[in-house]
Design brief:
Shape: elongated
CATH architecture of one domain: Orthogonal Bundle
Largest sheet: 6 strands, parallel
CATH class of one domain: Mainly Alpha
CATH superfamily of one domain: Isoleucyl-tRNA Synthetase, Domain 1
Distance between the termini: 38 Å
Helix content: 40-55%
Number of strands: 16
Structural class: alpha/beta
CATH topology of one domain: Isoleucyl-tRNA Synthetase, Domain 1
Strand content: 5-15%
Strand order of the largest sheet: 3-2-1-12-13-7
Length: 523
Amino acid sequence: MPQKGPARLSTQSFYITTAIDYPNGEPHIGHSLEKIAADVVARYHRLLGDDTAFCMGLDENSQHILRSAAANDVSPKAWTDRMEVAFLKAWDALDISVDSWTRTTEPRHFRASTELFERAQRNGDIYKSAYAGWYCPNCNNYYTEAELVDGRCPNHPTIEPDWLEEENYFFALSNYTEILKEHFRANPDFITPDVWRPEMEGLLASGLKDFSVSRQVREGQEAWGIPVPGDPSHVMYVWFDALTTYLTAIGFPDDAERFDTYWPADSQVIGKDITRFHCLYWPAMLLSAGLPLPRRIVVHGFMTLEGKRISKTTGNSIDPVELVEEFGADPIRYYLMREVSLASDGDFSRVNLIHRYNNDLGNDLGNLLNRVVSMIGRYRQGTVPARGEAGELERDLESVAGESISHGRRLIEVWDLDDALTAIWQLVRRTNQYLEERQPWKLAKDPERAAELDTTLWSAAEGTRLAGLMLAPFVPATADRIMGQLGLTAIEHGDLVKLGQWGAVEFGSVAAPEPLFPRIEVE
C-alpha cells in the first residue's frame, strides 16, 4: 500500500481528496495526473508542518463492475479485490503518499452513506417518483436526448446509453439553486482553476433539476450497492454513495474527533467530466445533511496519449508501473506536473518526456548537483567550507532563492503547479549561472582568493539545497538524493518552515557524486 504521511506535528490540519476510481479495468497513465497533482500538494502541506490527511480509493458500487466481473468470469468481490491490488501497485510505483484508502464496499462506508441518506430524508429532500431517461453505465450519469452525441454518451463515444423507466428515489437538488448561486458569488475560488467555473454557473442560471438517487434491484439481478434505508428493493445511485467516500475516509459519522479535525475538506481534486457531481450535487447533499462545504474543488482536464484518446479497448494506453520501471517515478511526476496545466487538456508524449528528462532533470538539475559536490570534493576535500563575505553575485543569488521559494509557494497554494515548477527552476538555472560567473575552477588556482572560493562553493551548495527542498513535493526521492549528496539528512515534516531560508543549515561533508539522471540516448 502507498506510504503514509508523517506523524502529526502541527495543530493546523489539511484534508485533500482525489476522485475515487472505477475498478472496471486496470489503471492507465490518464489516471495518474490527478493523483500526482494531489500528492504534490499533500506533500507540500506536510513540508509546512500541517497535519495532512490524503484520501483516495475505489468506487465499486456501480453496474459496470458487475459487467467487468461477469466478462472475466469471477465474482464482483473477487474482481474488485484484484483491481485494488493493481491500483495500489500503480500508486505505490508513482510514490503517492495516500493516508486513507477507502473502498465503497467497506462496512464503514455503508454506515456513512446510510447516515447521509437518512439525514437528507429527515430534511425532506428525498422523495419517490417515476424516472425515464438515458443512462450511461460507464460514467453512471443520466442524460437527456439533447445531451447525447449521435445517440451515444458524450463522454464515452463507444457507449449507447440504456433507456431506463422505473420508480426511483430523488434528491431535491432544485431546492439549492439559489443557495449555491450565493455560495459561488461569495467564494470565487470554490472552483479552481476558474476556467472550469462558467459551465457550473450556466447550470445554476438555468435552474437545477432534481436527480435520481436510487436504482431498483431487478428480479434475478444481484443487489450490488448500498441498500436504500428502509427499502431494500432499491440501492443508492452510485454517485450518492461515491461522494460520501470523502466523509467515510475521516470517520463520519462515528469518529467525531477525527471528522471534526479534517472536515471541511481543503481541496477535492477531480476531472472535468465530473464537475456537475462535485460542484453542484455534492454541496447540496452536504447542505441537506447539515455539513459544511469543501473549501475548494480543483478541476483538471483530460489527457491524451500521443495526441489520441486514451482507450484500453483500442490499445492506446500505458501502464504506469511499466513506465516507472523504464524511467523512474520522479521523471514521470516531474514531466506531468511541468508539461500539463490543470486549466486545460494535456497530452502524454514519450518524446517530450525524454526531452524533459535529459534537459531539465539531467542537464539543469543533475549537472548542478554534480558540479557542486565534485568541486567541493576536489577543492575542499569534501567539506563544505564556511562562507565568507557576500558580494553582489551572492546577494543576487540569495534574492533569487527567496523569490523562487515565495513565488513557488504562492503558486502551489492556488494549484498552479506547472508555473510553480517554472518558478523553482529559476533558482536551479540561476545557481548554474552563478557558477559560470564565479568560475570556481579559476579561483582554485589562486591561493590568495581562497576565501572567495569558499564563499562560492558554500553559496552554490545552498542554492542547490533550497532548490531541492522546494522540489521535494514534486520529486521526493530526488530531493532526498540531493540532500544526501550534500551531506544532509533526508527531508522531514515541517522542513520548509524550519529550513526554507538562506543559511538555515550547517553543512558538513558531502558524499561522493552520483549522477541523478543518467542521460537517455535516443536515435
